[in-house]
Amino acid sequence: MSPATETEEHKALRSAVAALGKRHGRDYDINTLWSEAAKLGYLGVNLPEAYGGGGGGIAELSIVLEELGAAGCPLLMMVVSPAICGTVIARFGTEAQKQEWLPGLADGTRTMAFGITEPDAGSNSHRITTTARRDGADWLLSGRKVFISGVDIADATLIVGRTEDARTGSLKPCLFIVPRDADGFGRRQIDMELHSAEKQFELTLDDVRLPADALVGDEDAGLLQLFAGLNPERVMTAAFAIGMGRYALSRAVEYARERTVWKQPIGAHQAIAHPLAQAHIDLELARLMMQKAAYLYDSGDDVAAGEAANMAKYAAGEACVKAVDQSVHTLGGNGLTREFGLATLITASRVARIAPVSREMILNYVSHQTLGLPKSY
């Protein structure tokens, strides 16, 4: 399949998920939607068939999230549980880890959060201080994480730590599955202005004792394994943003067709119509890059996928913010009312610019990795 075109199967998936999203709408109950999407096989569409998944890839999973978002009911935990955690375990987990986790992640009965961000590290993964040290056959994990989504509902959290010798300068990230009820594993909900069904948490790990089989993958290949999860995260964040932008734009277009102030609908005026058309174009262009990134990742080209996934996330974040802003502006005062439901998206749309990595860090990546310009840090 070309990354610029969709197969009939993809079109059918998009149509079916759109119908599901339309049934639930903006006032959706997250648990009901999650359960129904799981039963229809959408949540695990990217996971191996041998473990109950759909046997597809990030291309299919991104379609699911985008269409739910376009219907006003995105499932943020899709970015984390099947896309990051499911992918990492499917690619690098032991057979026992795959058997234990993938069927539940695929059918939605189990969820896994992902913990990488730290209070003092920000977007700099080289400054991660959560450390793992051996204690006999076990591991002891200590550190802090912040802005971790859905920890309260997740059965476990995939924590990014570093082996202690990484402090000498060599980055050796390691990935550990930490059960929610592990001793020394604490959480505090962060009071967010963001309107979202999924809550954000700060985590503390105080000498959390984990068995040897809590480590996912090879201790010495952690960076490869980490980015195997981060590239899908960027693609899925792009899908989240594009879906949100499409939802806002559809509400604005509907309003512009019907709202009449003088003799004709306001959408007939170019000052209204052209910015909405530009927003649509930007969203479509962002989707093309997202499809390219998903295609490259699913094809096994991790290096090219990294560049494309970063570009897709950047483009989608910018397109989403602009689409939401223009949509709210099109509705005027109504755009700020609870009745029309667009005002909360002003804050939500910023997420795609900020998380999981800021647009400035993506520009750094492109300037260094793609253009070959020297680093400033």
Structural class: alpha+beta
Per DSSP E runs of 2 or more residues, the count of β-strands stands at: 8
The ordered H/E elements are HHHHHEEEEEEEEHHHHHH
Distance between the termini: 40 Å
By DSSP (H or I, 4+ residues per run), the number of helices equals: 11
Shape: globular
Rg value: 21 Å
| Helix fraction by DSSP (H/I, runs of at least 4) | 40-55%
What assembly state would you assign to the polypeptide chains in this entry? Answer: single chain
Weakly predicted, low-confidence segments: none
Note down, in words, how this protein is organized:
The structure is a single chain. Helix 6 runs parallel beside helix 8. The chain is of the alpha+beta class. The chain contains eleven helices and eight strands. A hairpin with a 2-residue loop joins strand 2 and strand 3. Helices cover 50% and strands 14% of the residues. The chain is globular, with a radius of gyration of 21 Å. Strands 1, 2, 3, 4, 5, 6, 7 and 8 form an eight-stranded mixed sheet that branches. The mean pLDDT is 94.
What tags apply to this protein structure?
377 residues; alpha+beta; eight-stranded mixed beta sheet; 50% helix; 14% strand
Summarize the entry for a quick read.
This protein is α+β, with helices and mostly antiparallel strands and 377 residues long.
